[in-house]
Amino acid sequence: MGVAFASLLGSGAAAAAYGQTPNAGSHVGSQPVFRLDGGNTTYAFGVNERGELQQLYWGGRLGEHDVIDPAKSEDVLSGFDSSYNNTPQEYAGWGAELYLEPALKVTFADGNRDLVLHYASSSKHDDNSIDVVVKDISRAVIVTLHYNIDPESGIVARSATIENHEPNPIMIEQAAAAAFSLPAAHYTLSYLSGRWAGEWTLNEEAIHQGQRVLESRRGSTGVQLNPWFAIGKGNAGEEQGETWFGALAWSGSWRITVEQDSLDKVRVTGGFNPFDFGYLLEPGEKLESPVFYAGYTDHGMGGASRLLNRFTLTHILPQAPSPKLRPVIYNSWEATQWNVSEAVEGALAEKAAALGVDRFVMDDGWFGQRKSDHAGLGDWYVNKEKFPNGLKPLIDKVHSLNMDFGLWVEPEMVNPDSDLYRNHPDWVLNFPGRPRSEDRNQLVLNLARPDVRKYVFDAMDKLLTENDIAFLKWDYNRNWSEPGWDQLPANEQKKVYVEFTRNLYSILAELRAKHPGVEIESCSGGGGRVDLGILHYTDEVWPSDNTDPLDRLTQQDGFTHAYPVQTMAAWVTDSPHWLNSRTSLMTYRMLVSMQGVLGIGGNLNNWTNEDMAIARRLVAAYHQVQKTVTQGDLYRLISPTNGSEFSATETVSPDKSQAVFFAFVHSTQEGRSFPRSQLLGLDPKAIYALGSIEGKAAEGTPTEASGAWWMNHGIEVALQGDFQGAAFRLDRK
Ligand code: DGJ
Fold first, then answer.
1. In terms of domains, do 684 and 720 share one?
2. Which of 130, 177, 582, 634 has the most CB atoms in a 10 Å sphere around its CB?
3. pLDDT per position as a tens digit, 339-389
4. Coil, strand or helix: which one is 169?
5. Is 170 in the same domain as 292?
6. What is the pLDDT of residues 88-104, one digit of tens each?
7. Whose CA is nearest to atom 2 of ligand 1?
8. Cα–Cα dist 142/356, whole Å
9. C-alpha span between 345 and 245 (Å, rounded)
10. Looking at the domain assignment, is residue 621 inside a domain?
11. pTM, full prediction
């Protein structure tokens, strides 16, 4: 069962609202209850006696015939606690007595700013989708709330379309995709934070009264905070306990507010960041919010990430529901930086091919007058000094080595030292007459402008048309500043926050449609643009410029809470590492990257024969288990965070026929050996054969045993020392 219309006043009669046409805003005479069931989850909401849309239930799946009573607004607690404020509204307008975070805030042409949204109508699309229309009590602002539940995962997709049917324009000052509510309890909030080269730190903190704001004001997703949250109830942990989670599909400035009210209820509101926001809606116009996805599990954080990550694989990614396995790439950035040329890249390509690499990617430096980060961005023609005959000879060579070819671009940016900027200085985000702040010697093109959008699309389209390119690494190396758009009247200029990102999405979609074989990586100096919005148009992301293996272990742990391994590019680079001088073994570096989408990013000219042999052997081993590692169900058995000596993950294929187990030690002390690991998610009755990918199991470990044995007794690994790793596969017999 997907969407159902349940009882009227608990009587069991079908809701009169079903299929009703929009009511001109008057209070409806009935109180419909809407119920969505999917996976192990039920999400229910209804219309309260005042006409507001109110959440009724979000949690474990209820019985099919269970009756959910109609909504009843919260009682007034005191003169300070209005019912309008405390009632868990699905999408509250800022008006009446609302002090909590509004979902929608507008200013009307006459200065009125009171907005109170009441139920008007609903329409069911199919078993899993329903639109519910709410409307202001006196003015023609109509909001359609879109609901869709995924029948497998129970993940609910919510968004809102805001329409102005007033005779005059309205200014939207704040617009959420959705608000989700939880009843009063003790909760822990988890979220991801970071900085350049230090992305994906998992934070956990108790939720207390007041707001915890997760946001980006930077024009793009940002590395500082990621638009994902999880909320565990009571003692919920990695594999147990009720956990709610969500992710906002938006790559522009965003905000998620987690707020506990004075009655201890929690409301999570997410959408466009209201900071500096202003979207003018002329009569008849509408604004679509991003989509906010949210789900529930009683299997803790691990259960939450398995649900969300499978949902992303099967519903979000461009190749969903069955994304292809990611090619093992070689990327030349750390080897050459900007010093690329036909000869240099050709030599690296030969070495990469010898490792069994599938795709050769040339990074920054091939275009315009690009010798460093000081010049060239915006000029997307091939640099003739470095590539006298264009890219074709290199691409042909890469193909002759049985690899396909990928190329780095950064289309939304421009260096002031470029032909593009010299010709179009007005194309960048700026406030006329004011300074233009540069980062990495570059400015941000105003992609919201139609002429800029056309230039960027045409430049990328030309590159892809003229060259046999299988992959674009789409980089974005700074945040916005001075975000002016002076082509528009003053009261419309803030539309840049919406139109820039929409144009980015439409360029990516159009390029993919015109060049269907091309795959794209989202990179923003590392993990600065990773969210479910961009992942609808890109196949993978570059999680961090930090490729040090120990740091990557914790980053990968954080990353997998919100995003699937299938999207998590992971290069093996050189030792000692450029960022922190850490020395590590080739096997350790390889195994850490094999937890993700394996790639090679070191300077192969300096690798020893032994390094090359280890890498070649492990690339081949990776190919054999890649489907399980990147598309299976991940169990984070031991977290590498908080200075843990040990860490371990296990990934199980959806049909439970294979599992892959990785174990790492940071540095063992006092003779302690690796803890016995009880595996999870296997078929207890099936027999699994144990095979080593790298490293040894402890003496006496059986070569085959039941799933029950591996899960109850567990596996012991012979692993000691500093920065050591091991990996095993279990294959069902
Ligand atoms: C930042 C990216 O994260 C790096 O991998 C590399 O592509 C550089 N940009 C190139 O400028």
1. yes
2. 177
3. 999 999 999 999 999 999 999 999 999 999 999 999 999 999 999 999 999
4. coil
5. yes
6. 999 999 999 999 999 99
7. 525
8. 57
9. 44
10. no
11. 0.95
